[in-house]
Amino acid sequence: MVAQMADCGNICELARRHDLRPSQLFTWRRELRYAASAVQGANQGQSDPMFVPTVIEPVAPPASKRKPVRRTQPAPVPVVELEIDGVAVRIARGADAGVIAAVIDALKTAR
After folding, report:
1. Quick check: 4 and 28 in contact, CB under 8 A?
2. Cα Rg of the chain, angstroms
3. Taking the alpha carbons of 30, 36, 40, 43 in that order, is the dihedral positive or negative?
4. pLDDT (tens digit, 9 = 90+) per residue, 18-41?
5. Residue from 109, 77, 108, 81 nearest 93 by CA
6. Strand, coil or helix: what is 51?
């Protein structure tokens, strides 16, 4: 893409075609110039660096084998909360009165 910048009349359009920002292309060009000048300084008389063509192929998304999300119902909001000897009992709306009485009796006798 940096090589295309030399022949391109509109850098912003080139960047948009490749989903980049123009500043990224300018940064790559500047870094390439720094690298080229460093190589030329270290290797006087050798050939200039060359661009290597790249091929970008679209990647197919992996097949999704996700399990369906099971929706759980939120816990009912307690209507009555009892605490007997450090044990908290939360009673929700619609709870069976017989079960509630049995739980309370069991907590009282366990003391």
Report:
1. no
2. 36
3. positive
4. 888 889 888 988 888 888 877 766
5. 77
6. coil
